[in-house]
Amino acid sequence: MARLAGRRTLFAVPVLLAVTFGVFAIAAASPFDPVKAYAGTAALGADQETLDRLRANLGADEPFAARWWDWLTAALGGDLGQSSVMRQPVAEVIGERLVWSTLLCAVAFAAAVLTGTVLGVLAARRPGSWLDRTVTSLAYTLEAAPVFWIALLAVWVFALRLGVLPAGGLTDTASEVVTAGQVTRHLVLPAAVLAISQLPWFTLYVRQGVADALAEDPVRGARARGLGEGTVLLGHALRSGLLPVLTLIGSRVPELITGALLVETVFSWPGIAAATVEAALAVDFPLLAALTTLATLAVLTGNLLADLLYGLFDPRVNLRDM
């Protein structure tokens, strides 16, 4: 496992370099002017000399390759730069928002894995039954539904029509103190919507994996030896059927991040979504590069975690060959 982690870490270095360089190149080709975005409405009445001076102060007149190199060398020294759109250091922007995005993703991902496992096992017990058909039909329906549509529907039903949950934000409007109870109430809807967007994949994978495992000779042999149905299902079929799900964990990280950005935007959740959108519109090079690097690291870490878990639970896998 240590060798695999070391190889993946070395592989991650050129990937991160290429990703950050691509961010600067794409941002430089963007039609948005970072100077006008920084100045806001003041840019409408500013003369060209003032705009040129502001452009020089922001470094926007330099080639994107030079800006990338300056950012990279500073980032290696622990300085992620200054966000022009947020008017604060990039490290502070990420630090203030990352904890809430991590909370949302962790709760939603855990709920999707647990619920998907339960539904998949129940559907796989009797293939072709009404429960199996109901679960699989629901999974395929949710798989085709856009996450933002589910989010808007949840707001309309639970916040506007029933009024049982808040429509967005982190705390109540009149509250000046962030409490665990308020955060929990405001977390329910966005976490549930994000979990629902990931639920179909886990349900279908578990259902197929457990159904295939139940048809294998070792499981049939366990039943022939008189083992209980619960022991056969949970001790044999589920363990074998969950192996494909381990690889799914890493591959779902990119969509989880994308879905989290949409969910945070709909529910006004104070995560990194707003910062990402504003950084893209304002062509905020340091913030864009840092957020993209963070997302890339999350994807690489998810893939590494999936491989490690697969090698840990499946003795047939040789981690040295991965």
Question: How would you concisely characterize the structure shown here?
Answer:
By secondary structure, the chain is an all-alpha fold. It contains 14 helices and two strands, in the order ααααββαααααααααα. It has helices at 2-28, 34-39, 48-58, 64-76, 90-125, 130-144, 147-161, 180-214, 217-224, 229-241, 243-251, 253-267, 272-281, 285-313; strands at 82-83, 88-89.
Mean pLDDT: 78
Number of distinct beta strands: 2
Helix-strand makeup class: mainly alpha
Shape assignment: globular
Helix run count: 14
Query: Whole-number radius of gyration?
Result: 24 Å
Strand order, biggest sheet? 1-2
Largest sheet: number of strands, sense, barrel closure? 2 strands, antiparallel
CATH architecture of the domain at 90-281: Orthogonal Bundle
**What does the oligomeric state look like here?**
single chain
CATH class of the domain at 90-281 reads Mainly Alpha
Give your account of this protein's structure:
75% of the residues lie in helices and 1% in strands. It has 14 helices and two strands. The protein has helices at residues 2-28, 34-39, 48-58, 64-76, 90-125, 130-144, 147-161, 180-214, 217-224, 229-241, 243-251, 253-267, 272-281, 285-313, and strands spanning 82-83, 88-89. Strands 1-2 form a two-stranded antiparallel ribbon. The protein has a domain at 90-281: Orthogonal Bundle (MetI-like fold), CATH 1.10.3720.10. A hairpin with a 4-residue loop joins strand 1 (82-83) and strand 2 (88-89). The chain is mainly alpha-helical. It is globular.
